[in-house]
Amino acid sequence: MESDLTLQRIGKVKQLIELGINPYPNDFKPSCLASELIEKYLDTDGDELKSLQTEFVVAGRVISIRDFGKSAFFHVKDSSAKIQCFVQKNEIGDEKIKFFKKFIDIGDFIGVTGKLFKTKTGELTLNTTDFVITTKSLRTLPEKWHGLKDVELRYRQRYLDLISNDDVKQIFLTRSKIIKLIRSFMDSHDYIEVETPILHPIAGGAAAKPFKTHHNALDMELYLRIAPELYLKRLVVGGIEKVYEIGRTFRNEGISTQHNPEFTMIEFYQSYSTYFDLMDFIEKLITYVANEVVGKLEFEYLDTEIDMTLPWDRINIFESLKQTLTEQELNDESALFKRADSYGIEHNNIRGKALLEIFERNTGEKLNNPTFVYGFPLDISPLARKNDNDPTIADRFELYIAGKEIANAFSELNDPQDQRERFVKQIELKSKGEEQYHEMDEDYVNCLEYGMPPTAGAGIGIDRLVMLLTNSPSIREVLLFPHLRAE
């Protein structure tokens, strides 16, 4: 059921049409942005503004109106800023001022022509000589411009959130800037950007539960990608030795302040590199972005001081676990699983899974400054190269900042026979109920048999990086349209 105010505005639309006025024209062109006028003339003296005699044309949404009978002040907001306008009977005539008061409402888009002056309080203002409705709004804006506060409503109706809260809009402008900076950094280091399929015939590239769909014409089951990894490494085999992709990834898992079913990541691969080389590279990439966005490497995230000054800390999982677990728990699986059970960890008798979960709860969540964590168990790293000195661990690391995993990287497994054996073990784990493990990818193994040069690769979660650099507490704050339960 429509509100009385909406019905009134619908009535105004009807009246405008009866007057021969289109409430939704498509031929208005502003001559400048509000920010351009403010930047150029904010410090200009009032007398000098009067001598300009230049008419400017702006367009935007009316966000406030102060009515003074024969005149009115109102603010127009475009994509760049808001600017005050003044309309008066003596300037535009009796008929036009009546039209303004009758038909212009907060929320409408209008085009305004006028000359600049300064009010007694010194506010730069456009003295209106003409105006035109460019879009008649039918609904009133939320909470009289005190800002939309209902968190769930903000996420469900992001358009209202962006209208009401300038800080929210700034987050997404910063997000766009971060992605541009990442792309610029990769391009400057001679990486080639590519696009790989989002619909996969076999789920793979990460330990995660996929979304399923069905292709009718081919009559085959497909999966939304959980990672672009296996396709990007196919390109390395094909001779593209430095490659990256920025795009959406999908995982049919839980929703929280840290997780969304679809998220954005950059994944990249570089031949003739090791995972230690990528530690150095990621340090440079993220500090470059942080300096450009925040302007410094020491800043506050929520209630924590973050110091990104180089070099970043590097710790070994097993060395760290020695402070938490006994020698018996580290070496005897039954003792380890018993300890994991005490934490409520669902490990399914997978040693590496139990070790990693215990590490994350005792150490990982407390790593505020950037820290590379390495020495991952091999049984939870099916695509990573075995360590030469200890075949029970993989040449793999994760980057933690503010207690969150920001990046995952490893030296790639390029031994096709070893890879086949790892896939077989994944199938065994899947049969035990581990839904995040997947079936054999014969084509990928076949690809490796043609030879992949020594390579290291990494994935960085862009949403979490944006959270960090915009001081946002939840991933929903940095996603324009986060997933929510149905109302």
What do these coordinates show?
- It is a single chain.
- The chain has 487 residues and is an alpha+beta fold.
- The protein has 17 helices and 18 strands.
- The chain folds into 2 domains: 4-140, Nucleic acid-binding proteins (OB fold (Dihydrolipoamide Acetyltransferase, E2P), Beta Barrel), CATH 2.40.50; 163-324 and 363-477, Bira Bifunctional Protein, Domain 2 (BirA Bifunctional Protein, domain 2).
- The strands form 4 sheets. The chain has an 8-stranded mixed sheet with strand order 6-10-11-18-17-16-15-14, sandwiched between helices. A 5-stranded mixed β-barrel has the order 1-2-3-5-4. A 3-stranded antiparallel sheet has the order 7-9-8, with no helix packed on it.
- Helix 8 packs across helix 10 (275-293), helix 13 crosses helix 14 (351-362) and helix 15 runs antiparallel to helix 16.
- The longest helix has 23 residues, at 166-188.
- It starts with a helix and ends in an 18-residue tail after the last helix.
- The relative contact order is 0.10.
- The model has no long low-confidence stretch (mean pLDDT 94).
Can you give me a brief rundown of this structure?
The chain is α+β, with helices and mostly antiparallel strands and 487 residues long. It has helices at residues 4-18, 34-41, 46-52, 89-92, 94-103, 151-156, 158-164, 166-188, 229-237, 275-293, 317-321, 327-331, 333-342, 351-362, 416-431, 442-449, 462-469, and strands at 55-67, 71-77, 82-88, 109-118, 124-135, 192-193, 199-200, 212-215, 220-224, 242-250, 262-271, 298-301, 304-307, 313-316, 371-374, 396-401, 404-411, 455-461.
